[in-house]
Amino acid sequence: MSVRRLAEDAVQPTSFAFSVDNESWAEKTIRKYPEGRQQSAVIPLLMRAQEQDGWVTRAAIEHVAKRLSMPLIRVLEVATFYTQFQLKPIGTKAHIQICGTTPCMLRGSDDLKAVCARRIHAEQFHLNAAGTLSWEEVECLGACVNAPMAMVFKDTYEDLTPERLEEIIDAFERGEEVRPGPQIDRHLSAPVGGATTLTSLGDDDELGDRDEGPVRESAPQAGAGDAVHIAPSEAGRVDTHAEETDPSLRSPGAEAGVTASPAAEEAVSADPGEDGRSSAAVTGGTRQGSTGAHAKEAQADEAAKRHRTAGKRAELPAREAEAEAAVVDDKSRVVDNESSAKKPRARRKVDKASSDGSDGANGA
Ligand code: FES
């Protein structure tokens, strides 16, 4: 992408104002945005200014900035970033944008650019001698299927040849209308010459039948602009010949008519799995739209949980008795320890008292 600058001062008008119609449109457009978000109207306003004058002038940028209470640099950034904004005067009758991206390039866009260089100006973004025509190369315009193509204002001209482009340029110069869209025998982006596939839905229209004669001969021939009947696609429909569509096959959930109860779903959600995740997380969850398999899994989980809980309850009295016995045992051991620890001290006291007594006696 080249650097995009504003046009030189010599061609810049000194002021800008919307026409009466555009002014009321601008008012309405700005009011569409919530309070405090009026700056969002910057692109629509710039585009309307371009449609009015043919290109975005410096005065228009200043006008929009003032109108939306935006710093001028912010509006300049927008105008110079998007290549849809023309920053220099363009041809008054046509500005031809030739797509030069790969599909169009492979289909001959270089030849189209050569036509523009010869008929309009050797360099893009320059006016022809009369100031009526200009051209530029642009990136993909989204009509690659009909490459190569060009855009003039808001219309696209597709399936171009250098000769057809010259005719279009001549027509614009004369001020004539040119029919947009494909410029060959093609309807929109349908195959050239009409549909070659999906031409019938009849059961007897199998591939073998198609081999009997060239489909193209029997397919509707699309004149440009004529409607072509394109049969609905078979894509996404049930293939009744496939093994997996055998009606005798049923998914486990569908077969049993099983759906998960809310309680089962709760249990699955609350029950942590082996790795700490909930069963719902492991199974992908069964709360909404449970499949039969998931419902069964949830029920199995619930049953297992009930079993575990019941088992724990049954074990509880025995465990409590064991625990109580252990506590009693511990207490008695503590008492024993305490008494054995106290014994020597008591004995020491008795010994001391007896020795004191004997001392006293001795002393007495
Ligand atoms: S490449 Fe030309 S329209 Fe897409």
TrEMBL record:
Keywords: 2Fe-2S, Iron, Iron-sulfur, Metal-binding, Oxidoreductase. It is an enzyme of class 1 (oxidoreductase). Its EC number is 1.6.5.9. CDD domains: TRX_Fd_NuoE. One of its GO terms (molecular function) is NADH dehydrogenase (quinone) (non-electrogenic) activity. Residues 174-364 are annotated as: Disordered. Coiled coil: none annotated. Residues 174-188, 294-304, 312-341 have a biased composition (Basic and acidic residues). The keyword Lipid biosynthesis does not apply. Its cofactor is [2Fe-2S] cluster. Belongs to the complex I 24 kDa subunit family. This is NADH-quinone oxidoreductase subunit NuoE. It comes from Aureimonas populi. The lineage of its organism: Bacteria, Pseudomonadati, Pseudomonadota, Alphaproteobacteria, Hyphomicrobiales.
